[in-house]
Amino acid sequence: MRHRHARILAAAAGVVALAVAPAAVATGEEEAVPAVTFARTGAEQVVFDYDAASGGSCDTSATGDLPDAAARAFRDAAGKVHLIATHHRHWASISTGTSLDSVARDCAHMIYEAGNDPDPATYDNRGWLESFYTLDGRTIHALVAMDYHPRHYDKPCGTMPADASRCWYGTTVQATSTDGGYSFTSPAPGTPRFIAGVPYQADPAVTATGGAFVPSNIVVGPDGALYATLSMEPRELQAGGTCLIRTTAAALGNPAAWRAWDGDGFDVQFASPYPSVPDDPENHVCTPVGVGRLQRPVRSLIEVEGHDLYIAISHGVLPGDPAIKVLASTSTNLVDWTPPQAVMDLPRYGQNGESCSTHSGAVRYQYPSLLDPQSTSRNFNTTGTTAYIYATRVAYCAGFNRDLVRIPISITVS
After folding, report:
1. Is 394 helix (H, G, I), strand (E, B) or coil?
2. How far apart are CA 167 and CA 170, in angstroms?
3. Residue 104 contacts residue 57 (beta carbons within 8 Å)
């Protein structure tokens, strides 16, 4: 077994060398992967009740406080656990003690809101804090899914009626907290904040969704570097798929330090297309990993403690089975992945053309992620033999009323 604690110490010291021996890094050479089985072990538990009289939503307006992203957690320097699964205006749930098992909504701190700028060149439109990583519990680095929708600003999108997906343009940007997670800011517009996206500008004539979406959480890789996945929607030279990105702990504060897998190594630096499109866009697109195996988007990227093994959690179907499930693929190197297997059935909101008019009151789920309250990581990016699938629970015709729930599971590696 690789020396996991040595890897974490190296990452914490910021001394990871990316050009280390090939056996220690993700190389794309497929390795034998231990078998993993999952089992549901108990009933669904409510973590956040949107309309609870006490501890419910901090803001029930249309742009308010509701779980609209995968649940993430980290531990601050005082030992408090911050659980974040929120909308583009962000509040957190903070532990009443030091456990992820007991958290309460903190309405005293709205921790992040992007600028809602109508110009996609600012990368300051509507942002979702999706990923967190901290070495000391005081400075927390975050990846923000920045979404630009022309319809939010009464801007054109081809000749088609505006809807939620047309002309959707996604990028990933930087945010940082220096107060233990009680507030996050992105670099000021005009200063570097861009991490990832396609090397092409938003274009009202391109009505298809395109760009970088849904960063996973950040995990320590087999070489001690830090990794995350992005869900890439295709645009010209950029293929659709799951992109693997890498940086070091020492460089977490530098959005330009992230590099993406190109099929042979981590030599791709994403290029901002503003103010001008790069002359060499072919050098600024990633090569997807897990093609035909990883389903998108990957909501959680988790290391299994005591094993050379990573789990990617997604929400989709298996061949020959139309039932929507929480799915897991596994890897030893973060590049090569096993075909997905079922963790549990979990019907998805909007599946198979469902809507309020066809399924009024029916309960569905979104954004499944895996968290282990007993994780030995300050960033809750590892799991032992028991964990929870966290997910947003929503009923058709219920408006903004969404709850965050969790379901206990066991994880057996053999």
Report:
1. strand
2. 10
3. no
* Tokens encoding 139: 């400075």
> To which residue do tokens 């030995």 refer?
376
* 57 and 64 Cβ atoms separated by less than 8 Å: yes
Burial of 307 (0-12, 13-18, 19+ CB in 10 A): middle
How many angstroms separate the Cα of 335 from the Cα of each of 136, 159, 243, 246, 290? 29, 40, 9, 12, 7
Residue 294, judged by CB atoms within 10 A of its CB (0-12, 13-18, 19+), counts as: buried
Please give the pLDDT value at position 322.
Answer: 93
Angstrom distance (rounded) from CA 290 to CA 337: 5
398, 392 contact by CB (below 8 A)? no
When pLDDT is averaged across residues 341-359 and rounded to a whole number, the result is 96
Cβ neighbours of residue 355 closer than 8 Å, sequence gap 6 or more: 396
Residue 360: both structure tokens together:
């009024």
Burial class (CB in 10 A: 0-12, 13-18, 19+), 265: middle
- Does residue 327 contact residue 342 with C-beta atoms inside 8 Å? yes
Distance, in Å, from the CA atom of 83 to the CA atom of 93, rounded to the nearest integer, reads: 5
Q: What is the pLDDT of residues 131-159, one digit of tens each?
A: 999 999 999 999 999 999 998 998 888 87
Tokens linked to 351: 């599946």
End-to-end CA distance of the chain: 14
> Does 78 or 11 have the greater pLDDT score?
78
- Minimal CA–CA distance to 377: which of 134, 206, 61, 203? 134
Between the alpha carbon of residue 315 and those of residues 148, 237, 254, 389, the distances in Å are: 24, 27, 31, 11
Q: How far is CA 280 from the centre of its chain?
A: 28
Which residue type occupies 362? A
